[in-house]
Specification:
Radius of gyration: 15 Å
Structural class: alpha+beta
Number of strands: 7
Number of helices: 3
CATH superfamily: START domain
């Protein structure tokens, strides 16, 4: 079966694009938002360069999950493209995440996230739910980043 399933999520954020880009590329900030609602991020590592690796550890009660990948494109304040894969669990194939940041009408950010390469619709739907919950947390952080 091909990897033809994808998802797109859009979100308006209060912080300007350069600050939102920092939230995607700074370990301390990733730890504040990059996990679905019921999870936390105890650890994140970033090698911020094209070809550089990242790792994000997510924790849910007694379970820990780690996603890893490499940056394919980095344009500060505008765009990130990264591979996305899970270190644990069967059937977790590497996929591709593209994040586009544009200056919104209010000076904030219009974020568009596209996640491509899922083997089936159910895997795409599961990740869409997770990304929506992550971006809800990022929206809260963006309010803090916009103020300071």
């Amino acid at each position: 079966m091909g990897k033809s399933h994808s998802l797109t999520v859009k979100r308006k954020l209060a912080a300007p694009p350069n600050r939102v880009f920092e939230a995607w590329t700074t370990p301390e900030l990733l730890c504040r938002w990059c996990a679905p609602a019921a999870m936390s991020v105890p650890h994140a590592e970033v090698e911020l360069r094209v070809g550089g690796a990242y790792a994000i550890t997510m924790r849910e009660v007694d379970e820990t999950y780690t996603t890893t990948g490499h940056y394919r494109e980095l344009v500060a304040g505008e765009r990130l493209v990264l591979t996305w894969g899970w270190d644990d669990g069967p059937g977790r194939e590497e996929t591709l995440v593209t994040v586009t940041l544009a200056t919104g009408a209010s000076g904030g950010t219009d974020l568009t996230l596209t996640h491509d390469g899922f083997p089936d619709a159910s895997e795409a739907a599961l990740h869409e739910k997770g990304w929506r919950e992550c971006l809800e947390k990022l929206a809260g952080l963006a309010g803090d980043l916009a103020r300071g």
